[in-house]
């Protein structure tokens, strides 16, 4: 069985942790819902797609993220939100994504309840960045991204509230915060 088949079998057979162990979820305090797409590119050695946001964005400028964003009133589901945002940011059409499922939502520090959506892309799919939102698009080997040996965390004290900050490094890219927490949660789900 290859890496991608192994990932799909493990992802689909294991239910997300209902306790939200990485960060507690308080839906009543969330400002708004959002969704991100964890896009797995079906290459012989599968990769996971990331973006680096531009320096001029109001929120999370220059940070590494998954494509995605806030749910809009005309989005019928969070899957539709993730697909719409992915199209707006990196020009991947919704019908080019095969949805595998979604993970438990995570509350962001900015108050959004973010639902990670996992989907597959053909190795032949082409994408390009929207220069107003995305500075760089890059791929990380899936096996590297979900290996817990590459994941790290520290405890931080934020105004008297202790929180765990996750981070992950791949080559010159430092992935941290919510994106790293989602990646860590995915890796834990696959154990």
UniProtKB/TrEMBL annotation:
<keyword id="KW-0464">Manganese</keyword>
<keyword id="KW-0460">Magnesium</keyword>
<dbReference type="InterPro" id="IPR015797">
    <property type="entry name" value="NUDIX_hydrolase-like_dom_sf"/>
</dbReference>
<dbReference type="Pfam" id="PF00293">
    <property type="entry name" value="NUDIX"/>
</dbReference>
<dbReference type="InterPro" id="IPR045121">
    <property type="entry name" value="CoAse"/>
</dbReference>
<feature type="domain" description="Nudix hydrolase">
    <location>
        <begin position="31"/>
        <end position="162"/>
    </location>
</feature>
<keyword id="KW-0378">Hydrolase</keyword>
<protein>
    <submittedName>
        <fullName>CoA pyrophosphatase</fullName>
    </submittedName>
</protein>
<dbReference type="InterPro" id="IPR000086">
    <property type="entry name" value="NUDIX_hydrolase_dom"/>
</dbReference>
<keyword id="KW-0479">Metal-binding</keyword>
């Amino acid at each position: 069985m290859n890496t991608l088949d192994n990932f799909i079998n493990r992802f689909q057979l294991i239910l997300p942790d209902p306790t939200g162990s990485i960060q507690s979820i308080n839906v009543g305090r969330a400002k708004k819902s959002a969704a991100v797409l964890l896009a797995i590119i079906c290459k012989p050695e599968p990769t996971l797609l990331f973006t680096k946001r531009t320096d001029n964005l109001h929120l999370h400028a220059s940070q590494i993220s998954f494509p995605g964003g806030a749910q809009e009133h005309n989005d019928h589901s969070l899957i539709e939100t993730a697909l719409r945002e992915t199209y707006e940011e990196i020009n991947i059409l919704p019908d080019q994504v095969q949805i595998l499922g979604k993970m438990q939502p995570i509350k962001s520090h900015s108050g959004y309840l973010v639902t990670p959506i996992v989907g597959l892309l053909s190795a032949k799919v082409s994408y390009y960045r929207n220069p107003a939102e995305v500075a760089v698009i890059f791929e990380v080997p899936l096996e590297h991204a979900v290996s817990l040996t590459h994941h790290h965390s520290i405890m931080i004290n934020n105004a008297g509230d202790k929180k765990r900050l996750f981070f992950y490094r791949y080559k010159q890219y430092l992935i941290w915060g919510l994106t790293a927490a989602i990646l860590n949660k995915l890796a834990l789900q696959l154990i």
